[in-house]
Amino acid sequence: MEFLLTSLVVVLIPGTGVLYTVSTGLFFGKRASFFASLGCTLGIVPSLLASILGLAVVIHTSALAFQIVKYAGVVYLLYLAYLMWKSNDSLSLNEEINAKGVLSITLKGFLINILNPKLTIFFLAFLPQFLPINNASYTSDMLSLGAIFMLMTFIVFILYGLLSNSIRNYLINSQKISRFIQRAFAGTFALLGIKLAFANQQ
Known about the structure:
The chain is mainly α. It has one domain (about 1-5, about 20-195). It is about 80% helix and about 0% strand. The protein is built from 10 helices and no strands. Helix 2 runs parallel beside helix 9, helix 4 runs antiparallel to helix 9 (about 140-170) and helix 6 (about 65-85) runs antiparallel to helix 10.
């Protein structure tokens, strides 16, 4: 129960993944926000496996490894900010997205989490707190807790996407509002990129 409550608080706190899911839901509808949620959730897998296999220790102790992953994440967030700023898409009732669009949305969500070195370190510090001392099934228990965390993330992100879609219905077909929202999200992505650039290993 302690793990579930703590995880819920962590998942509910708006971060880059939530921002991406909400912006996707606003501009492309609830179906697109579902795949954004899926991509962000799948992006947790590499960090979880890295923590279990001990790679997080390398990232935590190696300044070079941490900086490489960090700045790759910074560049990607700034790239997303640029795409959002330059986008000509406006809010509309058309929610149709083709297979290529689905793949692109899912991949972007996946990359948002995989390029965040703090997520790997988070799992290394977070999950072991909820394991029994002298645990003999460390790997399986870590995988179980990680799977629960991912499921909670997926559900919460879907709810964020549905919420953004309901707001979207009130903003439909307004070019001025669309541009304002685009610029706001672009600026937020840029700020998150700058924040990540100044992040340290601690």
